Description:
- The protein is of the alpha/beta class and about 200 residues long.
- The protein has 2 domains: about 120 residues, Rossmann fold; about 70 residues, no CATH class.
- It is built from 9 helices and 7 strands.
- It has a 5-stranded parallel β-sheet, sandwiched between helices. A two-stranded antiparallel ribbon has the order 3-4.
- A hairpin with a 2-residue loop joins strand 3 and strand 4.
- The radius of gyration is 18 Å and the shape is globular.
Amino acid sequence: MTLKLGLTGSIGMGKSTTAAMFRALNVPVWDADEAVHRLYAPGGAAVAPIAAAVPMALVDGAISRARLKQAIASDSTLLDRLEDIVHPLVAKDRARFLRHHATAPLVLLDIPLLFETGADAWLDAVLVVTTDPETQRARVMARPGMTEALFSEILSRQVPDAEKQARADHVIETQTLDLTRAEVARLIGVLTEQGGD
């Protein structure tokens, strides 16, 4: 049986870097954000239904996230309608990934809003990555286009780090790459041994 490990963490906590470490150790990784990018790209399954709901979002056969953000800012009901379109398509993409890797002992599902969307209900275990607030702030503020206001807004929509850690089965601190890499390797060993029992 494949063990489904969910990965989450607040913005700037090192989630993408940690997911890449699992990938480097041959653990199949499904990334929710990548799935949305595929759905919004030309030929993606979300393009037609979103274009029907928000015609201005269609640019060169793809959905423009920037234009979607503009539309959402001017229509408070739009986000819920878009989630009704996108969430089932993301779930289909994830189901396809799980079928494809059905014989793997362990798969990692990288889900930014894992607790916010209730994904912990169907996962076998949850890993939360974390770091101290100073490191988190420095990482986030170094991103192009990031502002204090945007950082605060993003944090306000996420389950607080302390609550994530309390609800997690596993926590990895991401202060340094070497320590994170060692913890990832250790956790893979523990989980694949459990799965083999």
